[in-house]
Design goal:
Helices cover 92% and strands 0% of the residues. It has 3 helices and no strands.
């Protein structure tokens, strides 16, 4: 039985030989040292850079968000100021418009008063001219009529003037 056990031990593929274990251990140790000195620092450096990039990107995004919010607030303030300024400009324009309308109304009233006074003066002037013309015509007609009634010529200009004036005075008194 012992030989079967020895044969079975030698033939067992699951149990490695001692030399293979030593060579495997040395190879594993060398591979471990190479990876530890060369590859792991590169991985750690890449991970650190990626972490910094992600962290920096997040910080930049937060900073950009804060700046955008500040710009939005500033825009809203400027918009509100602009609206207030526009309202004051509209109110000022309304006030100026009302002042201009009032000024134009006053000027129109003054112009109407001036035109009415001018028309009144023109009417008075024409009335005086008509009265003078009427006096001359009435005087001529009265003189002609008186000449026909009296039967003698009244050619004296001073006399005609006095007769006409007296006649017109009598007419005005009878009104």
């Amino acid at each position: 039985m012992r030989s079967i056990e020895l044969a079975a031990e030698e033939l067992n593929p699951l149990i490695p030989h001692t030399a293979e274990i030593i060579v495997g251990f040395i190879a594993f140790s060398l591979l471990y040292l190479v990876l530890r000195r060369a590859v792991v620092p590169r991985f750690e450096k890449a991970f650190a850079e990626r972490t910094d990039a992600i962290q920096g990107g997040m910080e930049r995004a937060e900073k950009a968000q804060i700046e955008a919010e500040a710009a939005l607030k500033q825009y809203k303030v400027q918009l509100q100021d602009a609206r207030g300024e526009a309202a004051s400009i509209r109110e000022e324009a309304r006030a100026q418009g009302a002042a201009i309308i009032e000024e134009m109304r006053v000027k129109a009233q003054e112009e109407a008063t001036r035109i009415a006074a001018s028309a009144q003066a023109a009417i008075e002037s024409e009335r005086q001219a008509a009265l003078t013309s009427l006096r001359n015509e009435v005087g001529t007609l009265a003189t002609q009529l008186a000449s026909k009634i009296v039967g003698e010529a009244l050619d004296d200009q001073v006399r005609q003037s006095r007769i006409v004036d007296r006649f017109l005075e009598d007419l005005e008194k009878s009104k």
